[in-house]
Amino acid sequence: MSNGVVLNLHFAATPPPSQGKEKEIRETLLLAYRTLGVVFGGLVTSPLYVYPSMPLNSPTEDDYLGIYSIMFWTLTLIALVKYATIAIHADDHGEGGTFALYSLLCRRLNIGILPSNQVYSNSSTYSRIERGVEAQTWLAKLFERSIVARRLLLFLAMLGTCMIIGDGILTPAISVLSAMDGLRAPFPSVSKSLVEALSAIVLVVLFLLQKFGTSRVSFLFSPIMGAWTFCTPLVGIYSIIHHYPSIFKAISPHYIFHFFWRNGKAGWLLLGGTVLCITGSEAMFADLGHFNQRSIQIAFLFTIYPSLVLTYAGQTAYLIKNPNDHDDGFYKFIPTSVYWPIFIISTSAAVVASQSLISATFSIIKQSVVLDYFPRVKVVHTSHSKEGEVYSPEVNYILMVLCVAVILIFGDGKDIGNAFGVVVSLVMLITTILLTLVMIMIWRTPVVLVTLYFVVFFIMEGVYVSAVFTKFSEGGWIPFAISFVLAFIMFGWFYGRQRKIEYEITQKISFHRLEELLADPSVQRVPGICFFYSNIQDGLTPILGHYIKNMKSLHKVTIFTTLRYLLVPKVDPHERIVIKKSNLEGVYGCVIQYGYADALHFEDDFVSQVIGSLILHIKNCSGNAEPDSQEIEQEVSSLEEARCAGVVHVRGKTRFYIGLNCGWFDKIMLGFYEFMHSNCRSGLPALRVPLQQRIEVGMLYEA
After folding, report:
1. How many CB atoms lie within 10 A of CB 635?
2. Coiled-coil annotation: which residues (predicted)?
3. Distance of alpha carbon 434 from alpha carbon 282, whole angstroms
4. Domain span holding position 143
């Protein structure tokens, strides 16, 4: 930390460059292997439910060729070009997903309306990142000037985030249900209710495994996905040879034009099913925090993409010869001799498929919690080497209950497929819009390339969105219901936090006012160290005045501590603790800086690290005058003496006073915020503060 740096030089132990390169390649390939069990589960198992989700009516050979052509180009353009080639580079220091795109825009261009954006000014981390952006584009200036534009951007980010969380509920449901449905072909007596019950049991087991962490789960799941990724294209090749060897002529885009020319509106409606061929593509971006760009790209390009192209080709070849088997378009195309091995692999793979969006949901919830857009929930870091690997028990069990409920209530695979299509298409469209903004305002991509990207993907995904919205009454409303609840929680929490910070800034206490309060003869300075927690930095929290007036005391050493979350994934260790000395005796300021991908705890004793940084600051910051060693020793001695007398941590337990003068909107939103605030976790346990050292000071804020 700030106490110094010790350099240990071991020249003999330094590996040669070639050896280091080989080690890096091995680690990347191992990570690429592990991505099979986490990132690509949803994408590579999509053949289980794509054809069964399509409302086909007496399809012809030309129809199937057109459908395959649509799926091939959708996979190629959206999964390969957009996500694996472009979006994956729009990470925010290793973190991906919709919220990471939003935070990247806010951090680089100061266009956010986050509570934490008021405390950027003194961070060298932020300043260093900002240096590359000087002359702003007209679009950046528009967002800075227009609060409406900034709120619209926030709405898009929230909607995308809520939809991905909804994806984390629907992916496990549709994947496991579609796989378990394979029992009904060899055993017609097996009822749909039994299939749903078995699917629910499998999902419960999957969610119970989450506490072991992404690395362990992926190591367990990757062999299963490896078997699936290898076996299904082999079956596809067999089906192509046996049923329709010329299937790859459908790669020509003219089959797409002929398909829509012949089928018109019916063909447009079928897009609600074909869009499911890229389910899980967003996980390539959202799961970046668990892996890295190169490993995800290698796995997709050399295994996932060829596997999907061959599997869909095989399915389509079978269906051209057996056009009415589309309601069970996966299991019917499996040869009888390998049916049961493929069934076991597919069921296992469907379970694994759920992992990609579950992991992404954990990452997104963590980012939202740290950026103050979601109530505080417990977030556990399941890896010592990879900060992005997180697990949240509360979120995990809520997801489990909702997944099981979706299966038991909406057991029809078509309804869940319609809901799934809405999620997939909307998330793609939102990512396209945010990525376009990143290209224009941050990457400064040439206008021609930005226009080409936006026109191609916005039109393509816009057509998909228009098709899936026709299924709103047939299951398409499910993700909107989930997203509405999540968005209400996120906005309610954000609104309450914003109002609290606004109140604290307007009612803050200056150091001059603190000096006046301490000058009162009835106020005593008591022995010990007090860490007084505050949400504001330029001034002191109004709770301090409330505390002094009622307690008539203040500790001899008082450290006003602010936990400051920057819109960066990680803060350098030497910038973690920032100390500031006031003109008042024994009064200091301390800012603990964290990014949203940092673990909010200290490896050693929190108090020791802050006091160590404080002593270092006292010794190094003597101003322009010659340092008075006696004064320094006396101040350090006072610190140690106060520490021996005892340490206490004081935080405000504030509530809004919602009076009769409040409008109906404030009554609803602030009342909802208070309900969430009273039931969420405290911010202090993450710092490992002992329970017996905590004091909470209650105060009412006038709404």
Report:
1. 18
2. none
3. 13
4. 47-121+136-469
The amino acid occupying position 607 is V
Model confidence at 121: pLDDT above 50: no
Distance CA 643, CA 608 (A): 10
Residues 484-522 have pLDDT tens digits of 888 888 888 888 888 888 888 888 888 888 888 988 899
Same domain, 87 and 146: yes
Contact 608, 635 (CB under 8 A): no
Distance CA 203, CA 357 (A): 13
Supply the DSSP string of 30-77, one letter for each residue: HHHHHHHHHTSHHHHTGGGTTGGGS---S--HHHHHHHHHHHHHHIII
Q: How far apart are alpha carbons 425 and 643 in whole angstroms?
A: 58
| Cα torsion 366, 370, 375, 379: sign | positive
Residue 5: band (very low, low, confident or very high) from pLDDT cuts 50, 70, 90: very low
C-alpha to C-alpha distance for 399 and 466, rounded to whole angstroms: 28
599 in a domain, yes or no?
yes
> What are the helix (H) ranges across 507-605?
511-519, 542-551
369 to 52, 565, 568, 680: CA distances (angstroms): 38, 10, 14, 11
Please tell me whether the overall predicted TM-score, pTM, comes out greater than 0.85 for this model.
Answer: no
Same domain, 465 and 515: no
Count up the domains in the chain and report the number: 2
DSSP classification of residue 533? E
The Cα–Cα gap between 67 and 250 comes to 9
Two tokens, residue 532: 């007084």
Residue 490 burial (CB count, 10 A): 21
Amino acid sitting at position 98 = T
pLDDT digits (tens, 9 = 90+) for 304-347: 999 999 999 999 999 999 998 888 768 888 988 898 899 888 88
**Residues sharing a CB contact under 8 Å with residue 202, sequence separation 6 or more, in sequence order:** 176, 180, 347, 351
Please tell me whether residues 439 and 560 are part of one structural domain: no
- The answer to whether residues 160 and 364 touch, using CB atoms and an 8 Å cutoff, is no
For the chain, the first-to-last Cα distance in angstroms comes to: 41
Sheet holding 587-594, edge to edge: 577-581, 587-594, 553-565, 524-533, 647-657, 694-702
Tell me which residue of 365, 420, 419 sits closest to 393, measured CA to CA.
Answer: 365
Give yes or no: residues 396 and 524 share one domain. Answer: no
The Cβ of residue 241 has, within 10 Å, a number of other Cβ atoms equal to: 11
d(C-alpha 698, C-alpha 634), whole Å: 35
Whether 409 and 552 map to the same domain: the answer is no
Whether 458 and 516 share a structural domain: no
CA dihedral 193, 198, 204, 210 (to 10 degrees): -140
Single out the residue in 446, 469, 492 at which a domain terminates: 469
Q: Fill in the amino acid letter for 391.
A: Y
Residues near 74 by Cβ (< 8 Å), separated by ≥ 6?
274, 275, 277, 278, 460
Q: In the prediction, which pLDDT does 603 show?
A: 47
User: Exposure of 631 by Cβ count < 10 A (0-12 exposed, 13-18 middle, 19+ buried)?
Assistant: exposed
Work out the number of other CB atoms within 10 angstroms of the CB of residue 364: 27
Residues 6+ positions from 328 with CB-CB distance below 8 Å:
52, 181, 185
Any domain includes 41: no
Answer yes or no: is 131 within a domain: no
Element (DSSP H or E) covering residue 592: strand 587-594
Alpha-carbon span 442 to 438, nearest angstrom: 5
Give Cα separations from 271 to 21, 470, 616, 629, 662 (angstroms): 45, 11, 64, 77, 48
